[in-house]
Predict the structure of Metallo-beta-lactamase domain-containing protein.
Amino acid sequence: MQIVSGHGFTLCASRVVIKFQKSYSRFQHSVPAWTRRLSKQCRIDEQQHVRITDSSARPKTGPWNLNVRSKSEPALVDLSSNTAVTPSHAFVDGVLGVSQQNGDSDSNTATSDMIFLGTGTSEGVPRVSCLTHTSMRCPVCWGAAQLGNKNRRRNTSLLVRYLAADGIRRNILIDAGKFFYHSALQWFPHYGIRNLDSVIITHSHADAVGGLDDLRDWTNNVQDSIPIYVAQRDIEVLSKSHYYLVDPSVITKGTAVSKLQFKLITEEPFYVHGLKVTPLPVWHGPGYRSLGFRVGNVCYISDVSEIPEETYPLLENCELLILDALRPDRSSATHFGLPQVSNFLFFCCSSMYSTYIRML
């Protein structure tokens, strides 16, 4: 199992990457010492291009390093490879091969990747409160205020791109928060992304749904409508916060709002353009349910304070786990911190190998 952990990290947000060997057990009794060094060694940020590579010189016991190229690009995990022994090739099999609704796809010719459009907190980084503080200078925010700085972060959002069985390249977005349009302005032209085939919502907080109104640019100028996959509890919230999108009959005729097709999902697997998506139910604060999602052997849990035991089996044989970790020193009522991530690993990983992106 591999862990991409983060949703904050350092003083004002970052991400860390850990990789774990594919396995599943609730009886792991020790965490290697490198987990205690993560606050100094590990980070993934939105403005770098990250590709998973295999080093021919790597020792059998790890670590396997992610190749980080210092570019002004968002973090991108390349899920395709021509080398059968690399972890990235396994991601193609997981994302495309076993998850297609109508049989296996040709993983030798298909390509797939995941682009982190945002890895920050709800208010993003830098924070106005830090930049206007008169007695303390926050180094993260002051650095992030500089154009192109790697600590400039937006709401957590992930774009999954894959070549479907019909030969069409599909773009599936997970969450459209308050900063989504800014991310799209910067990175969609760069990666040649024009259409949005669907949007999957993890929960109804503003940093996950605040950008739904901005989807009007696509439905007015690119495509007729966009399917939105959302849980019943979240559509009930949206019917109040975004009532005109849920029920377009209330708007003035001719108003150019987003044309969205809301599709209710449960905690059972569903298909998006032939791609199997398995919900991963978690708690995002006391009594508040959020969803992570599994696509093939990749699991994505962006907002979590507790993972219930009934979700553990859904992580079995997961090769890449993208996991919330707000701070390196402690957890909060609504988010994992790095210590809680380590505690979780006690119970879900029987064997591990370390991989990390060094702090740059």
